[in-house]
Amino acid sequence: MGVQVALEVGIKLGPYELTGLIGSGGMGEVYRARDPRLNRDVAVKVLPSSLSTDPQRLRRFELEARAAAALSHPNILAVYDVGTQDGSPYIVSELLPGETLRAKLRSGPLSVRKAVDYAQQIACGLAAAHKKGIVHRDLKPENIIVCNDGRVKILDFGLAKLTRPERESTGSGSVLTLDSEVASIVGTVGYMSPEQVRGKPAEGRSDLFAFGAILYEMLSGQRAFKGDTAADTLTAILTKDPPELTSLQLDVPPALDRIVRHCLEKSPEERFQSARDVAFDLETLSTVSSTSAQPVPVSRRRQIKWAAAAIAAALVLLVVGVVAWRRTARLASVPSYQQLTFRRGTIFTAKFAPEGQIVYSAAWEGNRPQLFTASTESRGSTPTEIRDADVESISRSGELLLVQGRHMIFAFVRPGILARSPLSGAAPRPVMQDVQDADWAPDGSNIAVARYVNQRFRLEYPIGKVLYETDTWISYPRVSPKGDMVAFLDHPVFGDDRGSVAVVDSAGHKRTLSPEFPSTQALAWTPDGNELWFSAASSGSAADLYGVNLRGKLRTITRVPGGLRLLDISRNGRVIMAQGHVRRSAMVLGAGQKAERDLAVADWSINTDLKPDGSAALIVEESEGAEGYSVYLRKTDGSPPVRLGDGFAEKLSPDGEWASSLLLTTPTQLSLLPTGTGQSKQLPHDASMEIFANSDWMPDSKHVVFSGVERGHKPRVYMQDIDGGRPHPITAEGISGAVLCSPDGKLISVKGQQQTWIVPLDGGSPRSVPGLGSDDFPAQWSLDSHSLYVSHVFEMPSKLYRVNIETGAREIVKQFEPGDTAGVEGVGPIQVTPDLRYYSYGFGRYLTDMYAAEGLR
Question: Of the listed 35, 117, 138, 696, which one is catalytic?
Fold first, then answer.
């Protein structure tokens, strides 16, 4: 098996410098380490070198660690990295100040209040993991840490499968791992579910059994299942129930006892069916006080009896007053809304200025934003001379932070020039380039920015000090009222607005507070700094208003028809928000049509491809109420759409028999969906690499090309036979992006973030196209394979150019713009057939009004 030898302090594992040993156990050693790249302390768990002798187990470890890293939840340990050095795998995670639940339980049972609080946080973490299909399988007090601030985190998600056999054969803490072709028993004796004991596969309800055992132990101070030997403990799990909590002279509420019993049912079908249900039931008990766990002395019961009679009489007198008060309070608690804008168009940003004034950016009856001022005291708005700018923040002295001249990098990613301007209306003064969003510090002395630099996003506060850096993207940096933290929206997919709320302190320590939502759009601190409010959609595009505190407790503040977007919160708690209707159209001119037709399936349709004969379009739909993305094929004559499957639709094969779709799994994969009969296929076949968006088909319809990345390598372009084999690289590392195959099958174009390459498939050297810039997005090859049709995505009108790949000479061949431009920010994506006879283009229409709200709590 090999012996794990403790590593010396000061050595490096990859970029991480070990600074001290935290602890050790059967799964290896855990060290405190320093990450010099992000200037933060981390925890590094070094696993036994024996794992590396079994390639299958090592690969399982890597896949499971990547799955764990995909979990983003305030009650789950954040995994940052995974690697191998000198034959020993290691994982890197956040460093948590606190102690394990096991350490807390050594001093006896917890109060009911604390037990319910901890249990609710554990249940929320399990619910987030189970939603992503990840089962812990070894939940126990040793794998739960209670931080110094009261937050609870679950450790070692996805690693329980790798627990190696221990030498001890007795004791309720023994760890068993029996892998065979017949069965696999994995878990810790005393917390294993009956189905795990029997060697059956573990699933989410198995974790709930372990959860019930842990909650029982928190309340009673003793284990639910314990025998003289491990075998006795396993027998107890299968055949016995633990003593009732009420029989142990514990003042445990009956409803809480029922929750524990329901979790510990022997049959999975009779337990809670989801961790979310458990969390919901615990929510009703979250106000239970720790004092309720104290028994009432017998000597005081007679006094209480007489006091109860007196109180009952007094209550009769109070009933009328209480009812009247509740009616008044109910009326007072209903929020009030005041409409501030009345024109047809889109509100982009808005901020409270001193003395109750509001400055906002909007595009009325067009698509060019302009700054306006408004007031809650009077109707109407006053235009300013500042155009093509978003107001990001206003200092207490009345100085504006603006982002001007935004340019498209990818969907949602639109940095521009940060500028400062006095509220009096003087011309803005440029500060820096490539800024997505910005915010003033409370005292107006410093600025926090989210910047796009060298193809990476940075959070800087103050400007020049990097607190957080990522390969994906971030938005809405918001400095806390005390100035000691910066909150932001963390988006895991570049160019997608799915994301979660995170905070980072001045030392660069980042915490994720909220679950990941399919769409997150805005963020603001409450005046007391205890909570963050944000707009997010759990499906579709209609967002609700949520709040999350610094411990990760999430709540829904309000929901309105059509959705809303938070704009700002004033120092006295007033709120401004944009409310309206959002719809995305997919316009097409196909075979036999004389006029364009909207092929939108529901309210958020994106056109991604068009058949060469103009007979059908490929569409991805993320409508309200939908679960993720759905792929549709719709004939251009307006026939009802046909749903092909899940994922983000990519391209149709030249023979029309397949549609490729990107699955947003971990790792992302490519799914091939039959447009007729047949079974779908998934690429790569061994799930060994991450695939990026915008793949394409070779002319033979037997091969696909895509950008992807294998562990330990940089992204590049690969070709894959759809019938088998492994993908093989066709570009050097570092050349990746959106891929298009030429009609003659000899060339591919690769659109990177900064340039477009032409790559010969016969092995020639890649070359750039003269004159093509970062804003040029190839839409299609010309029929003769000598030119690319390119456009500037999300401009309006959107022009389609033919660009010669040898000379760079360009000419406008088409122009796209809806007849009604109100609320339309830009046009894209554009799809054309190689002969330019047929085309499709999309656009979103945002028609919003601004409201001021009072009474939101």
Answer: 138
